[in-house]
Structures are given as structure tokens and as C-alpha cells.
Amino acid sequence: MVENKIINRNSYDQVMLPIYAPADFIPVRGQGSRVWDQQGQEYIDFAGGIAVLALGHCHPALVNALKQQSEKLWHISNVFTNEPALTLAQKLIDATFAQKVFFANSGAEANEAAFKLARRYAITRHHPNKTKIIAFHQAFHGRTFFTVAVGGQPKYAEGFGPKPADIVHVPFNDLAAVRAVIDDHTCAVVLEPIQGEGGITPATMAFLHGVRALCDKHQALLVFDEVQSGMGRTGKLYAYQHYGVQPDILTTAKALGGGFPISAMLTTDTISAAMETGAHGTTYGGNPLACTVGCVALDIINTPAVLMGVEKRYDIFIHALEKINQKYGIFHEFRGKGLLIGAVLKAEYQGKAREILQQAAKLGVMLLSAGDSILRFTPSLIIPEDEIIEGMMRLEIAISQWLSRYDS
Ligand SMILES: Cc1ncc(COP(=O)(O)O)c(C=O)c1O
């Protein structure tokens, strides 16, 4: 076993594939919306593990469920089914448009399954050339090869050889652009109701309704990636429920396990019938540990107390951000919904989000960026209101310190 004392941030560069640039400190403990690092410094967590920790760190109900299940059955494979998976599937069905569920372990895997299902459905129910997928610039759907190809950020898909084909990208929220490319060869339109990684951009009401109508006209499936926007993040269980537009396939992950890896793809009876035994699969997807935690997370999140609290917390964040902006004038606008908030830096601070995050961490507050010019807030849905206020005070000091260096 490696001695604890040699585990520090330098170890990362020695032993890990160099695909991330993690912060200088190493968190070792979390409770609620607070985190402590190796040196004992405490942080208020506005990042929430990138919209994963909907109930904060180590929520007692999740810890308890995991402990209990860990003494019963960890893993059994999909050669057998298991009670927690069936229970969670039924809960998701009861709470949404869906009638069938597929479990996986990550957002990318759920999307991979969604895109394969959409193609399979179109090929078997319509015709073999109905394979075109329409997706959007700036979209993010994960890092498998199919999902980076559908994602709208070419930098993630290039440099790995030939990409999955027949995928067309158009500007988000531009219905005319969708209308111009959709045809009877289109199998699916794929979108995030609120683009997360791409800049915290909500779909407009007219756009989502218009895309739904175009999909119906051309017998294309509408796929909503709610990996980030789902599980209560916007104040409803899924963001589509704000719009009154129902997808044919929906993917959910991140907060579904409150920090324990699990994802799901939801769809209808009719569409799911395009898959037969052996058409797709996973070893770990739907394992009893993950599904047990998912059941408890869903039961807690899908309650008026938690969902209605999201809107209230949004107001506190926006009020604090506006106050900071009155003093320092660094933000151009605030975007998002519920606790998926983007604070867009003004043109003169373009590309500086990461520097501000680093300064914020020094002052004891963890947050994220979306791209290099937007500060992103995706905290626990139940973060105590006084911790929002305290965290925003720390952020204000961080911004004032960063600005005084930047301007001098
Ligand atoms: C909208 C969306 N889809 C898919 C993914 C990929 O999820 P994962 O990293 O769990 O594969 C993410 C991750 O940030 C996401 O925000």
C-alpha cells in the first residue's frame, strides 16, 4: 500500500492519464455542502461534483441505504435481475412519461444506449437509411465515441480517427435551422433542454415545441439528454416538465445516484420493442448497490419540499450575484434555471473563468466553469440558505482580490 504522506497533488502528474487539470488541493471529506481538504481547509461546495450531489455529501439516508444494501447483495449481473433495479425502474416510470427503463453507469453510457435505440428503431420500423441524427452546436453528451460525435464540440471528437457518421449539427434554439436539415431520413433529434457544459443555455419554449412538431412530421424520435438538467436540478424532476414537451427517449444520470454512479435511459413500450435480447447490454448497469441508492435519492428529491426549495435557492444565488455585479461589474448576464446557474463574464474578462475559480478555492468556495468564460453553480438542492450566503461572501472577496490583481 502507498504511504499516505506521499499522496499529494504532484502524485497526480506522476500516476494519472493527463486528461484533467485538477485543483491544487485534494478533498478528503465532505458533509452536506461543506468539504475539507488534506490540510483541513474547509470549503463551501457550489460545484456539487458537477451537478451530481443533489443531496450534498454523505446524506444520512443515502449512507444508510448503501450500508444496508452492502451487507445484502452488491452485484449479480444482468444474467439475473434484482429487486432494487425493478423498484427504481417502476419509480422512474411512475414519475415520468416512460414505460421502459435501461440502467447503465454514466451519462455517456445512457446516451450511447439512447442513440443506438433511436437508430435501431428507425432502421427496423421505417427503413435502413433512416439514420440521420440532428444535434446542436455546443451540446455535450459524454465522451464515448458516439457521444462525442453527437456532441457539438468538435475538439472532443477529433484526433481519434473516423467518427460515427450521419450526424448533423445546427445552432441551438434555431428552429429554422432544424427545419432546413430534418427529413424522412432523420432518426432522431438529440438535445439538452438546458445546455449545461455548452454554456447554461435553456431551450426556448417555442424551440422545444417546434422541434417536437418537426419530429412528429418526419417520424423522428426526440431524445432529451437530462443527465445534467434532470433529477430536480431545475425545480421539477425533469426539465422537460417545465415545457410541456414530452420526449420519446430521455437520459438521466449524475444526481440519480446522488454521487453513486448510475444512469438510466427511459423510453416508451413501442420504442423499446425495437430492441431484443442481446441487442445491447452492460455488466454493472442496474446493480443492486447503485439502484438502492437511486431509489432513496429519487424518493427524497421528488418531493415538494426539495423541488420547491430549488426556486428559493435560485433567488438567493441570483440576488447575491447581482449584488456582486453592482459592485464589480464583471458579469454580462446570468443564465439557467433552478440550481443550474451560469454567470457569464463580460467581454473584457473572456477566458478568465478558471482564474476566478482558483481564487475562489483559496477563499474556501468551490465552483465550476462552463467553457472558459462562464462561472457555473450546481450545488446541492438542499444547501442551507446561510451556506449560500456565506459562500457568496467568500466569492465576492475572491472576485475583489482577483480583480485588484487583474487591473493592476
Ligand atoms: C448533458 C450531459 N450529458 C452527458 C454527460 C456525460 O455524463 P458522464 O460524464 O456521466 O458520462 C454530461 C456530463 O457532464 C452532461 O452534462
UniProtKB/TrEMBL annotation:
Keyword flag Amino-acid biosynthesis: yes
The keyword Nucleotidyltransferase appears for this protein: no
One Gene Ontology cellular component: cytoplasm
Functional note: Involved in both the arginine and lysine biosynthetic pathways.
InterPro entries found in the cross-reference section: Ac/SucOrn_transaminase_bac (IPR017652), AcOrn/SuccOrn_fam (IPR004636), Aminotrans_3 (IPR005814), Aminotrans_3_PPA_site (IPR049704), Class-III_PLP-dep_AT (IPR050103), PyrdxlP-dep_Trfase (IPR015424), PyrdxlP-dep_Trfase_major (IPR015421), PyrdxlP-dep_Trfase_small (IPR015422)
GO biological process: L-arginine biosynthetic process; lysine biosynthetic process via diaminopimelate
Family from the record: Belongs to the class-III pyridoxal-phosphate-dependent aminotransferase family. ArgD subfamily.
Enzyme Commission numbers on file: 2.6.1.11, 2.6.1.17
Reaction it catalyzes: N(2)-acetyl-L-ornithine + 2-oxoglutarate = N-acetyl-L-glutamate 5-semialdehyde + L-glutamate; N-succinyl-(2S,6S)-2,6-diaminopimelate + 2-oxoglutarate = (S)-2-succinylamino-6-oxoheptanedioate + L-glutamate
CDD domains: OAT_like
Pfam families: Aminotran_3
Cofactor requirement: pyridoxal 5'-phosphate
Subunit structure: Homodimer.
Associated pathway: Amino-acid biosynthesis; L-lysine biosynthesis via DAP pathway; LL-2,6-diaminopimelate from (S)-tetrahydrodipicolinate (succinylase route): step 2/3; Amino-acid biosynthesis; L-arginine biosynthesis; N(2)-acetyl-L-ornithine from L-glutamate: step 4/4
Broad enzyme group: transferase
NCBIfam families (alphabetical): arg_catab_astC (TIGR03246), argD (TIGR00707), PRK01278.1 (NF002325), PRK05093.1 (NF003468), PRK12381.1 (NF009047)
Taxonomy, superkingdom: Bacteria
GO molecular function: identical protein binding; N2-acetyl-L-ornithine:2-oxoglutarate 5-aminotransferase activity; pyridoxal phosphate binding; succinyldiaminopimelate transaminase activity
Organism: Xenorhabdus kozodoii
Cofactor note: Binds 1 pyridoxal phosphate per subunit.
Positions where N6-(pyridoxal phosphate)lysine occurs in the chain: 254
Residues at which pyridoxal 5'-phosphate binds: 107-108, 140, 225-228, 283
Name under which the protein is recorded: Acetylornithine/succinyldiaminopimelate aminotransferase
Compartments reported by the entry: Cytoplasm
The entry's keywords: Amino-acid biosynthesis, Aminotransferase, Arginine biosynthesis, Cytoplasm, Lysine biosynthesis, Pyridoxal phosphate, Transferase
Residues reported to bind N(2)-acetyl-L-ornithine: 143, 282
